[in-house]
Specification:
With 505 residues, the protein is of the alpha+beta class. Helix content is 21%, strand content 39%.
Length: 505
């Protein structure tokens, strides 16, 4: 209850507690090597640990007396002007999100998933925690659009933005990295000043991968790197009730430039002119109605706003019937099965809702058999220079399949599995947009004398029918044939990924 005696709305979300990853000399050294920084080769383990300790100390000082908001999701945005399939992304899983734009059309958001990086929580496999809605609002074009609408018709967007801050210092490389950690934590804290920013352990996990290959090329005189990180946040998560006080998202965009990074300074020392530029934007919601309002301002401005407090299933059903809102009610639990499960009540409960209902028979889609299928080989083995390839791939159900996902349905799910002794993951957000296949073309680049194998995440779907008029047992059955479902997740590898899919132990 709040001070006025009204019930405080909670937001339904299903998360699993995890142990945040830490920055270690083992994870830092290859980044320094990739960047071409001499200390990647010469620094001792103790020296690398010293870099890390100083950076973590900066986090702790900024969060002094405050806890920071916990994180439940994290990704790195790959800039649209950086081609995929380069050695920097080999073996990485990249989700290509198609974001609806408030101004019309769609944008492409390419998210690099670091599978070995954990923050405070992760979404349960049967629900990805409003990531689709948060990424839609956080997307730069949409965020700017909502900012522009503030003050019109009483609308107020609660998003916060901190414009780019630049600092230039004459420092050694290790100090430059420490300064970058500090600026990132401070920028996040400015977006969420009450909480003090992002939890320090989560912040360390987010900054675990700070550097990468020189965007200017390894032959360039100066080192230049651009980082673009997205963090999904949660406040006051209750593991038993599976709800929280609020959720939000933040984007940290930074650039790091080190002048003449491969050469000694004129005075013979190891300092360089280092410039760090960082900006941030984000939003936080302690009321699900406000998140719905902002999401609908982008996807369906004419939608009827509805009450999104947790209520009875009947209240939710009534809302879905009466509202034209694009915002989904979170009362579905979709599970992606490694193999086709038995046709029974539990399978039906964890399948994807459809708008199909004939003669009392309700049909849903069972999603199973996740895999990464080869969709091409980019062969530049005989080339003497980097070559670019364009590849078109499709997201959605195969064309011969005719079904309808409900207008107000948005369901998210993920799964981890084993293939060729490698742990892979696959996640998808299903909505009415999947009712039609969507093709998109992405540019990939392959270095000279290299060959790259390109994979797309897929799964199978099969309709399961429930005869509501039949007996409690024996009234579930599969109908039709399995349907190939293509997801917007792609992966590149220097070697073929072969073998059968197995469940993760």
């Amino acid at each position: 209850m709040n001070a006025k005696g009204f019930p405080i709305k909670r937001i339904d979300i299903k998360l699993t507690k995890t142990t945040p990853s830490t920055i270690t000399p083992v994870s830092l050294r290859p980044q320094l090597k990739d960047a071409g920084l001499p200390c990647g080769e010469t620094a001792t383990v103790a020296e690398l640990q010293g870099f890390i300790d100083r950076g973590v100390k900066e986090f702790t000082q900024i969060l002094a007396g405050k806890t920071g908001l916990a994180a439940y999701g994290f990704s790195e945005t790959i800039p649209n002007d950086v081609h995929l399939a380069s050695s920097a992304y080999a073996g990485k899983q990249i989700e290509i999100k198609i974001i609806k734009l408030a101004t019309g059309g769609y944008g492409e958001l390419r998210l690099l998933k670091e599978e070995d990086t954990e923050v405070n929580y992760k979404p349960s496999e049967t629900g990805a925690g409003y990531s689709n809605e948060l990424y839609t609002v956080l997307y730069e074009d949409n965020f700017e659009y909502l900012e522009s609408k503030t003050g019109q018709g009483g609308y107020v967007f609660g998003g916060q933005r901190k414009d780019a801050k630049t600092r230039t210092d004459e420092v050694a490389t290790d100090v430059a990295i420490t300064n970058l950690f500090a600026e990132a934590a401070a920028s996040a804290a400015q977006i969420y000043p009450v909480a003090g920013g992002v939890d320090k352990d989560a912040m360390q996990a987010v900054m675990k991968l700070t550097l990468g290959k020189n965007f200017g090329g390894m032959a360039a005189r100066d080192y230049y790197y651009r980082g673009d990180k997205n963090i999904l946040l949660v406040d006051g998560y209750d593991e038993q009730a599976q709800d929280c006080k609020g959720i939000g998202a933040i984007n940290l965009l930074y650039t790091l430039t080190i002048q003449e990074y491969k050469h000694k300074a004129k005075n013979g020392g190891d300092t360089h002119e280092v410039t760090i530029t960082i900006s941030s934007r984000g939003m936080f919601y302690d009321n699900p109605d406000v998140l719905e309002r902002d999401y609908n301002m982008i996807t369906n401005p004419g939608a009827v706003m509805g009450n999104r407090s947790r209520g009875s299933h009947q209240e939710k059903d009534n809302h879905q019937k009466e509202s034209k809102s694009d915002f989904p009610v979170r009362d579905e639990e979709l599970e992606i099965f490694v193999e086709l499960p038995p046709a029974d009540k539990n399978t039906f409960k964890h399948s994807l809702p459809t708008a199909i209902s004939e003669n009392g028979n309700v049909q849903r889609l069972v999603m199973y058999s996740p895999d990464y299928l080869n969709i091409g080989v980019l062969d530049n083995t005989h080339g003497s220079a980097e070559t670019k390839f364009e590849k078109t791939f499709t997201r959605g159900f195969s064309k011969e399949f005719s079904t309808t996902i409900g207008y107000s349905t948005t369901v998210e799910a993920s799964i981890e599995f084993i293939k060729a002794s490698v742990t892979l993951s696959l996640s998808a957000t299903f909505s009415a947009s999947w009712n039609e296949s969507q093709s998109q073309t992405t540019t990939f680049s392959v270095p000279a004398h290299k060959k790259t194998f390109l994979y797309q995440g897929t799964m199978l779907a099969r309709l399961i029918k429930w005869n509501q008029k039949g007996p409690e047992s024996g009234n579930y059955e599969y109908v039709g044939s399995p349907i190939l479902t293509e997801t917007p997740t792609v992966m590149t590898s220097d070697e073929p990924i072969l073998g059968a899919v197995k469940p993760k132990p």
